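User: Fold this; tokens only.

Assistant: Input:
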Amino acid sequence: MKILTIALQKDGQPIAASYELIEAAKSIGGEIMTACLSDSEAGASDLASRGGGKVLTVTHESLKLFNDEIYAKVLKALIEKYSPDLILGPATFYGKALVGRLAALCGGAMASDIIGLTAENDKVTVTRPSYGGSVISQVVAEGGNGFFATVRGKMFTESKDGPGEVVAESVDGSAFEAKMTVTERKVESSGAVNLTEADVIVSAGRGMKGPENLPLINDLAAALGGAVGASRAIVDAGWAPYSQQVGQTGKTVNPKLYVAVGISGAIQHLVGMRSSQTIVAINRDKDAPIFNVANYGIVGDAMEILPALTAKFKAELSS
């Protein structure tokens, strides 16, 4: 089986999810290839040294800033040349836009936001949540135009080593032409730690009563070395930026620890965080739906609980 992973980059270096995709590919065996598109070959050698297999590099000035139309056409050319059976991309904002377009261009089957995959007799089966995570589906691709999938972050560890080599590729110049031109990239930061890559997330909901109390969330997140998240309700209210929103219309996260503070647990929010390894809920309402998915629950006033937790963690970590 031939597997092509798509290594997206940030500031000229592969994002962490790129190495997770390599580990996902290694888990089912076969011939691994990694597509590395950029305006330089920076990062390609690292991908090769960490098990990226045949790292197919395409360099062009138009690849410096992400443009899904150009990226898809370049990747389509690589797919036509190497005929991979499985194509894996990250389930990030850019990854979802790219892989969906790419699957349509190639006429292949598509599964999004997968959380596991297996292979038997050259047939790949992927696992993905459906209906807001209330149903776990097993999806098998039929047909010969390739199986395309985006992989949810942190479902696999980052590949640390393995065989690899860098192979410079060239594609037809028409692939770098697009109807849209990207001239600048601006990032609205959710804090010191990237939300989708964080191992710990502390999220706030309406139960925080007002934006003046959100520093309590920031303090606990800082004490844990984590990122700050938010429910849609407080984003819509203007208490927090959209970059912090977790849920169906925000980001899907998968941290080791997710602390939900003052969040009732509507299905729209659960979609984005229920696969977290450990969930701690803090809410005054003992009947709040969030407790149905929480591993640990604290019933009480967040304004009293948060300072106590922050002080305790600071003391433990400094000792």
